[in-house]
């Protein structure tokens, strides 16, 4: 059996691993041992699984692969952000972005090759939809970021947070993303607090409800305009998932304690950056406890949009703050290597960090 014929173990839940063990005639408890080696110890070979018998390791190696693959390339921004490119099939690449910030280190992961949502302002959307990533391909991004030295030779911080804000709409690939969330938060998996994870969405209503009901991860909704007609012209998903319906769904959940709801709002000059738009957003939010992230637009080729001024962003933030809404201007990271919000497109970079 070749490597391409053998299924990867990373991306499997405890139940999945239990099925593997049953298939191989192993006791059920071996599934927990496998999970520990895969997700806690982060091994890359079966030989490292010291408490699993040689016979069972040989059977596993003959029938499965670990599934870990190194990034094909990486490129470092002047601000310390590192963008990694992973090959996920013939002619198919995805990107993930490591963002260091003092003691914090966030990884922005991709969930699809391309995207169906076709947002006007997004480089990923311009690719069209190519494929859903498997749970193994999503987990590989989290497990296989190399511990490369930082810009000055210092060690990179271990990951403290993961955001599903890379290529693709995470809730359009809910089956695989939900498996990854289970692995990341389960005691038998990575045992992360769900408060270290944020899932972004355009408002995929049916799967958003499942996300809210079945997990406690943070949620970020891409809004960008509170005007329905304008939002639909920029984000075709508005037609299938009207923002007002999304907000009604969200209003039925408690975001007043540890779980956080964020609204993402990219600002374009002369498009959605005036007081009228700010007041529309205030009305949309109502009494829902949210945090609004105001994001400077990062230009992509062929799109006739421009970033608005810092003064305009500050004015917009102040209007929201004056109505008791927490709003912040998100610092732009990695723009010089096309790693900033809306710029990921699975490009093979010529400049390498490795």
Oligomer: single chain
Query: Could you give the order of the helices and strands?
Result: EHHHEEEEEEHEHEHEHEHHHEHEHE
Major sheet: arrangement of strands: 3-4-5-6-9-10-11-12-13-14
Helix content: 25-40%
**CATH homologous superfamily assignment of the largest domain:** Aldolase class I
Class from helix and strand fractions: alpha/beta
Terminal CA distance reads 32 Å
Shape: elongated
Q: What is the percentage of strand-forming residues?
A: 15-25%
Estimate the mean pLDDT confidence.
Answer: 92
Which helices and strands appear, and what pairs or packs with what?
Layout: E1 7-8, H1 14-23, H2 29-40, H3 54-63, E2 64-65, E3 73-76, E4 82-89, E5 92-101, E6 104-108, E7 112-114, H4 123-126, E8 129-132, H5 135-143, E9 161-164, H6 174-185, E10 197-201, H7 205-214, E11 218-222, H8 228-234, H9 237-240, H10 243-250, E12 261-267, H11 275-285, E13 291-296, H12 310-322, E14 326-329
Parallel strand pairs: 1-2, 6-9, 9-10, 10-11, 11-12, 12-13, 13-14
Antiparallel strand pairs: 3-4, 4-5, 5-6, 7-8
Helix pairs in contact: 1-2, 5-6, 11-12
Write a compact overview of the structure shown:
The protein is of the alpha/beta class. The protein has helices at residues 14-23, 29-40, 54-63, 123-126, 135-143, 174-185, 205-214, 228-234, 237-240, 243-250, 275-285, 310-322; strands at residues 7-8, 64-65, 73-76, 82-89, 92-101, 104-108, 112-114, 129-132, 161-164, 197-201, 218-222, 261-267, 291-296, 326-329. It folds into two domains: 7-65, DNA polymerase, domain 1; 73-337, TIM Barrel (Alpha-Beta Barrel).
């Amino acid at each position: 059996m070749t490597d391409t014929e053998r299924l990867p173990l990373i991306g499997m839940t405890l139940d999945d691993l239990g099925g593997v063990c049953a298939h191989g005639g192993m006791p059920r408890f071996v599934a927990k041992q496998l999970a520990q080696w895969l997700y806690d110890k982060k091994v890359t070979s079966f030989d490292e699984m010291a408490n699993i018998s040689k016979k069972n390791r040989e059977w596993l190696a003959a029938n499965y692969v670990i599934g870990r693959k190194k990034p094909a390339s990486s490129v470092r921004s002047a601000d310390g952000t590192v963008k990694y490119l992973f090959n996920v099939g013939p002619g198919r690449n995805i990107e993930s972005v490591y963002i260091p910030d003092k003691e914090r280190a966030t990884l922005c992961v991709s969930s699809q090759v391309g995207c169906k949502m076709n947002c006007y302002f997004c480089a990923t959307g311009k690719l069209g939809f190519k494929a859903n990533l498997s749970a193994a391909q999503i987990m590989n991004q989290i497990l296989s970021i190399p511990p490369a030295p930082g810009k000055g030779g210092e060690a990179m911080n271990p990951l403290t947070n993961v955001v599903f804000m890379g290529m693709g709409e995470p809730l359009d690939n809910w089956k695989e993303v939900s498996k990854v969330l289970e692995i990341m938060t389960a005691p038998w998996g990575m045992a992360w607090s769900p408060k270290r994870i944020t899932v972004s969405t355009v408002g995929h209503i049916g799967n958003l409800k499942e996300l809210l009901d079945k997990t406690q991860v943070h949620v970020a909704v891409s809004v960008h305009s509170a005007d329905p007609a304008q939002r639909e012209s920029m984000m075709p998903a508005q037609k299938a998932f009207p923002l007002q319906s999304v907000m009604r769904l969200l209003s039925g959940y408690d975001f007043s304690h540890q779980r956080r709801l964020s609204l993402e709002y990219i600002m374009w000059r002369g498009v959605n950056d005036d007081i009228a738009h700010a007041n529309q957003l205030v009305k949309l939010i109502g009494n829902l406890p949210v945090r609004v992230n105001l994001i400077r637009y990062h230009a992509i080729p062929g799109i006739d949009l421009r970033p608005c001024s810092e003064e305009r962003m500050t004015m917009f933030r102040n209007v929201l703050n004056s109505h008791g809404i927490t709003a912040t201007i998100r610092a732009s990271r990695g723009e010089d290597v096309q790693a900033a919000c809306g710029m990921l497109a699975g490009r093979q970079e010529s400049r390498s960090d490795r």
